[in-house]
Structure formats: structure tokens, C-alpha cells
Amino acid sequence: MPTLSNLSVRFRLSAAIAVLFGLILLVSLIGFLVLNRTELWMNVLHKDTLAEVSEALDLSRESADLATSAPFLYALFPPFQLEQEKAKVLANLDRIEALSADDPALDLPVARLRFAIDDLTTALAPQTERQAALDAIDRDMVRLNQRVRRFTGDRALPLAEREVWSGLQQLTASAIGAGRANALIELGEAHRRYTKQRAALLAQLLPVHGATFAEIEQATQRGESLFVLKHRDLAARLDAENALFRIRQEARRVSTFAGAKVAQAENRLSQARAETSSNLAIAKNAFLALTAASLLVAITSSLYVSRYVAGNLQRIAEAMRRLAAGNHRTDPPQGPNSDDEIGQLYAAFHVFRESARKLERRTRQIGHQNALFSRVFRNIKDGAAIASSKGWIEAENDNLRQLLRLPPRKVLPMRGCLI
Prior knowledge:
Layout: H1 9-74, H2 79-99, H3 107-124, H4 127-153, H5 159-179, H6 184-202, H7 210-220, H8 226-324, H9 341-378, E1 385-387, E2 393-396, H10 398-403
Antiparallel strand pairs: 1-2
Helix pairs in contact: 1-2, 1-8, 2-3, 3-8, 4-5, 4-7, 4-8, 5-6, 8-9
């Protein structure tokens, strides 16, 4: 398995550049993904939250309208007005039901609201006829009360007769009080008093009182008994008040639920804001870490290039200049013990230096041999010459020049060369 020292300079520089490029690309990718995800998340959350808050506000407004419009049903006795107002309230309820379709928690309150509205209209529907009958009985009782009051105050009548008229006056007063009672307890007390007075009068009636008593009986028994009508009227009012209470209660629950939805939306926004801040903090830390790693890789690469590559190349260049100047005796620079390009360059330099030193020794040997041959060639007593393969004379000694009567050889000033 190759070690770090056996890796080439090109590979190490390429790996450093690749790592640096990968870190930069990773930083860019993380930043893009984080920012894109944050933007998409915030857009979706903003849209959903606005829609939810809008629905919650609409739901709260509709429930408030329902709670304020339902009591108008209680004050409307004409059937056509009651039906019109009921249609408006039900339309309001339908809007609430449509807005709460996605919230199962509102199914029960909405159903209770519908039942309460039905109970309210059911209790108030017969009130018109019932109230008309009670008003007619009340008018008759007032008329009969005024009649018997006159007879009671007539001092020309016998005392016994006037006492019966006074009893009839009290009987009509009890009937009027029963018709105008506002509570079941008050109605029960009036009914008890009326029954007691009637029973007492039956034993005292005279023929002159028979017609008036019959009118009183007829008036109180119109359609249904006065006390039955009034009991049903009060019971219907209680049912209507109970229905109104239930409507207000359920409308309050709907409004509370709408407020809770708004609060939940605010909490989600806060949570999303916190999560976004956390993600951005993580991304920021990742950016800083990767930036530091990139800076470290860049500094390491620059130090490697400046100290290892450039430094070794400078030492080799200095050694080459000394070698070119003929200084073959200086010690060569000590290079790294590696198999990369720098190590190979140092090894090649050592081979080149040894070859130069060998060449220098060989040159000195050849020079020494040439000098020895030149002395032997010049000292030959006979004339001698060296001819080329083409017959040209390349060298001759002085004896041959004398034999051929040639001028003496010229000695050049540089290194004693002869011509």
C-alpha cells in the first residue's frame, strides 16, 4: 500500500485542489439547500397559517353573530318573522359548519347548536296562538272584574249578594293574576287561590250571580284551561331560555376553539421561527467549519508548494549552476527520501553529477594520453605523418617538415597548440 511519501507531487497537488473544490462545493450545496428549504418551509407555513387564522377568525365572527342574533328569535312571535329569523340563524350555522368541516372537535358543538336552535323555534312556534288566547282571556277577565266591582260597590244591593259579588271579583283577580304570572310558582299559587275561591263561591252563588259566574268559567276554559295555557306558555319560555343558554354556551365554545386555533397558529409560527433559527445556526457552524477546513487545505497546499516543491527546486537549481561552473567537488544537496517527482529529480541530479565527474576523469585521462602520444610522435627520429582515410595528412612531426623542407610549426599561445 503506497505511503504519503510515495505519492507524486502532481497527485498531492491535485488531491489538495480536489478537496478544496469539494469543500467549496459542499459549502455552496449546504447553503443552497438550507436556504431553499427554509424559504419553502416559511412560504408553506405562512400560507397555511394565514388560511387557518382566517378560518378561525371567520368562525369566531360567525359564532358571535349567531350568539347575538339568536336572542331575536325569543322576541319574535309572528310566525313569518320567526321563520325568517330562523332561516338567517340556520344560514349562519351552515357557514359555521362549513368552516369547521376539517375540525372534528367542533362536530359536537355544532350539532348541539343545531338542536338548540330547533328547540328554540319549536318552543316559540305556538306562542303566537297561545299568547292570543291568553290576551283574550285577560281582556274578558278585566271586563268581568270591572263589572263585578261595580256590583260590589253598589250599596243598594243586599249585603249577602254584595259578598258574593266581592268573591267573584277576587275570583277574576286571581284569574288575571294567573294570566299575568311570570313564574311557574306564581302560577301555581294563583291556581291554588283560584280553585279555593271557586269552591267557596259554588256554595254561595245566587241566581243573580249565575250568568256572571258562567261567563267567568267560559272565559277561563276558552280553548284550553287558562292555567294549562299559562303553564305551557311559561314552560315554552323556560325551554326557549334554556335553548338560548345552550346557544350562547356552544357559541362560546366555538369562539374559544377559534381562539385556541389562532394561539396554536402563533405557537407554530414561534416554533417554526425557532427551528429556522436553529437550522440556520447549524448551517452557519457548518459553513464556518468547512471554511476553516478549506482555509487549512489552502494554507497546507501553499506551504507544501512554497517549502517542499519550490525550496527543493531552488536547491537543485543552485547545485546545477555550481555543477555547470565546473565545481564538481561540492557535496550535492540532500533531498527528501521519497519516490515523488522531487525525489526522482534529486536522484537524477545525483546520477547526472556522477556522470559529470566520470566525464571529467575520462577527459583528464584522454588529455594525458594525448600529451604522451604527442611527445612520442614528436621525438621520433624519422619523419612521420598521420594520414586520414582519404589520404590527407592530419599530423606530422618536425623531422618530416625538415625532410619536406616545410616551414616550422607555429605554436599558438593558447595551451601550446601546434599548427
